Amino acid sequence: MIRNYLKIAFRNLWKNKVFSGVNLSGLVVGITACLMILQYVSFELSFDQFQTDIDRIYRVTNDRFQKGKLIQHGTITYPTIGKTMAKDYPEIEGYTTIVGAGRMKLRRDKSLFPEESSFYVDEHFLSFFTFPLVVGDPKTAMKAPNSLVLTESNAQRIFGVQPKDYASLLGQSLYIDLDTEPYRITGIMKDVPAASHLQFGVLVSYETLVRTWGNWVKDSWEGSDMWHYLKLKPEADAVALEQKFPAFSERYFNGDKVSGSVEKFYLQPLRKAHLFSDYEYEIGVVNSGKAVWTMLIIAVFILLIAWINYINLATARSMERAKEVGVRKVAGATSGQLIGQFLSESVLLNLFALILALFLTVMLQPVLNQIVDKPLSLALLTGQGYGGSLMALMLVGTFALGIFLSGFYPAFALSAFQAIQVLKGSFKRSAKGVWVRKSLVVFQYTASVVLIIGTFIVFRQLEFMRKENLGFNMEQMLVISGPDLTRWDSTAIDRINSFKAEVKKRAAVKSATASVNLFGNRLPRTFNVKRVGSNEAKGVTVSRMAVDLDFFDTYRIKLLAGRNFLTTDSNPDGRKVVNTVVNLSTVRLLGFPTATSAVGQKFTLFGQEKEIVGVVSDFHQQSLRHPIEPIVFQPFYTNGGFYSFKIETSNLEKTIDQIREDYEAFFPGNNFSYFFMDERFDQQYRDDQVFGKITTFFSFLAVLIASLGLFGLSSYTIAQRAKEIGVRKVLGASVGSIVALLSKDFLKLVLVAIVVASPIAWYAVSQWLDDFAYKIDISWWIFAVAGVLAVSIALVTVSFQSIKAALMNPVKTLRSE
Fold it and tell me: Which of the pair, 149 or 729, is modelled with greater confidence?
């Protein structure tokens, strides 16, 4: 019987090629879009799932308050926190401490290798986390000073070895940056999974920091550069443990007497580190959880819209198939057999659509991966992504249930026709069925309008951030990384200034500056900064930038009062630098009434008196997600900073080659690497830009599929009213009046959808915009434009069928009367 059902189903689908093609197209597009989005969602949700004890791992976060105001909401804290908590609380099974080491340059003999992301980690790290060693002992690999662990990729890149030869690398030496002491390789580990919020290629033992930074990295309650992770015992309650932390703060910090700030500690589950981090000084790879869940909702909407289309398009053909049902029932077919027949058509069409969607997804995979810059694949939905094999089972179950439900309603509706009424020609449409179909169309357009409004808001915010005046100019700014492998000596400052002067002789170079810090990066902070002579017991917190005297002119940052830096302000010993320039936010934070009144005043920084010689305007040092920072600028140089050159781009390749030539002459043995400041700054918005592209593309698909659904409902309704249209034409109704009559009901549905969608969209975009310190207003006209667009799409969709019906010869529709 099933074989017969499938044979008849195939014949019916083949016979009605246009109907089948439209229906199949909607399903294929919907399922393909859903599969592509689910890959992205699965990848983002799978971060750190490979960690064996993920449900017991937490990282310590730290909020700092001064004068009752939150001054830092971060993931870094003091060196002693992890080990002290592990000592004080029996609920904690273990801990590990990490310090970011930036991008290290590795040296072997005379060979220099590209920079590599790296961490200083303690001896517990490799046993604490699931980063397996291929060779080496995880318990001892990070125990001794100057110990080094490489990933497999780096081992192969640096030594050219195969996996079978990894053991021969143990005990061999490498050098890091300018360090003259060798680092001994104690382990080779598997490459870090892409879905790890901690990304690195080199690990260096934490004990090495004691040699280079001093003992404070072990016992300080003030220096704050460490990340701490805790592993709780299986029976431990994280919430109950966190409630003990206020007593911990009072015991060790005694209010703000130790660090100058009131310290509050919290636990963040490792599961949330990637998608739910709004912290400063983030060590890991993070993304927006709101954006990921929004994408999941879009995937669900698109799939539902596709299946709703099948329902509407299938029921649109009910008049054509009514007589078929009547004849089958007269011939002895039961309702169950008819339902089986129609369900087999649904299953056949959906399965064919699923096969085509899988093929199309594989074909489009490289394009999707390029857009999101992530290693996505269908394997993420079949066991390698979020939820493992459970995800695959859930997807199979969801598709099976969706296929059944989308086919069951049309099958049930068609099989319920009364044979006598159909064959006598007195069959009438069901008011209940019409209500169901209209409700489905309202749902489709509600989802579509929400996506249209969301897309408008996302792109307006991105455009706002792109065009907003940041307070400095970074157009045509070429930035070169400083010479890390040139040693600092008494001639360093002269060499830096001579290099800048030489480069400025090039015709295409307009200006040049050197700085330790750059825009877009989180700046270092200093706490307990106070005005000299102030009666305040506790100071304030400011950020710091080290720049040369050409920095403000090169980046066109406006001087509001006082003067710029002079050559005499700088000193090779940063502790002897006295004169500073501050921005307007610092002036206000220190309590000076105006920029002019701040010039000549003094404040303490690291316990040393500094004088304000100039005040510059505020500017957005980071993206518009962050508020403007109070910044203190110091005339200080290092080899590890950056050189920025304002250039003409008419002959870019030649200009870069000339600057490279000068760089290699002044700093031999260093890698010449460069980037453009605007491109680097815009990387802060990369995730938002990807989110905008994805939502726009899939919103377009959702609207397209919803329009097919409206097309189906209009076909059904107009077919039901064919004789009414014929009568009206005979009585003199014009084509325009008939088109208006037929379109009116559908426009009502779209207007209802707009009313329902508007508050939903407003809430959703408000939540997304809350992540930005500077954002657009949600204007009423955006909702109006989205509504007009939705109505226009609906009109185009319905008018095709309406005009066709209005132009039909009434004789054809009335001759059966």
Answer: 149
Beta strands 602-605 and 525-531: pairing type? antiparallel
Query: Are the CB atoms for 316 and 719 separated by under 8 Å?
Result: yes
pLDDT digits over 268-285, tens only? 999 999 998 888 888 888
Rounded Cα distance between 739 and 735, Å, is: 6
Confidence band, pLDDT 50/70/90 cuts, at residue 551: very high
> Average of pLDDT values for 315-334?
60
> What contacts 732, CB < 8 A, 6 or more positions away?
none
- Asked if pLDDT for residue 486 goes beyond 90, the answer is no
Q: Give the Cα separation of 441 and 444 in Å (integer).
A: 5
- Could you tell me which residues come within 8 angstroms of residue 456 by beta carbon, excluding any fewer than 6 positions away? 782, 785, 786
Residue 436: other Cβ atoms inside 10 A? 16
CA 403 – CA 572 distance, rounded (Å): 73
| pLDDT score at 408 | 73
CA proximity to 551, closest of 637, 626, 484:
637
**By percentage, how much of the chain surpasses pLDDT 90?**
39
Residue of 124, 89, 294 lying closest to 761 (CA atoms): 294
DSSP β-bridge partners for residue 615 = 561, 582
* 145 within 8 A of 208, measured Cβ to Cβ: yes
Q: What is the pLDDT of residues 74-88, one digit of tens each?
A: 899 999 999 999 999
Would you give the end-to-end CA distance of the chain in angstroms? Answer: 39
CB 479: neighbour CB atoms within 10 A?
21
Long-range contacts (CB closer than 8 Å, 24 or more residues apart) made by 83-88: 84/248, 84/252, 85/60, 85/228, 85/230, 85/248, 86/230, 88/248
Strands 674-676 and 477-481: antiparallel
User: For residues 325 and 344, what is the distance between their CA atoms, to the nearest angstrom?
Assistant: 15
What pLDDT does 141 receive? 95
Q: Which residue has the tokens 């980690």?
A: 121
Phi, psi (deg, nearest 5) at residue 225: -140, 15
* Residues 148/204, Cβ–Cβ less than 8 Å: yes
Cα 48 to Cα 58, 129, 150: the distances in Å are 12, 10, 20
Q: Which residue has the tokens 């303690």?
A: 122
pLDDT computed for residue 426 by the predictor: 47
Q: Are strands 69-74 and 57-66 parallel, antiparallel or unpaired?
A: antiparallel
Query: Are residues 351 and 16 in contact, defined by beta-carbon separation less than 8 angstroms?
Result: no
The percentage of the chain sitting over the pLDDT mark of 70, rounded to a whole number, equals: 87
Q: Do residues 73 and 278 lie in contact, with contact meaning Cβ atoms separated by under 8 Å?
A: yes
In terms of residues, how long is the chain? 817
Domain boundary assignment for the chain = 2-40+289-466+686-814, 54-272, 477-684
Q: What is the pLDDT of residue 566?
A: 92
pLDDT tier at 515, thresholds 50, 70, 90: very high
Average pLDDT over every residue of 172-188: 90
The CA distance from 484 to 667, in Å, is 9
Strands 227-232 and 92-108: antiparallel
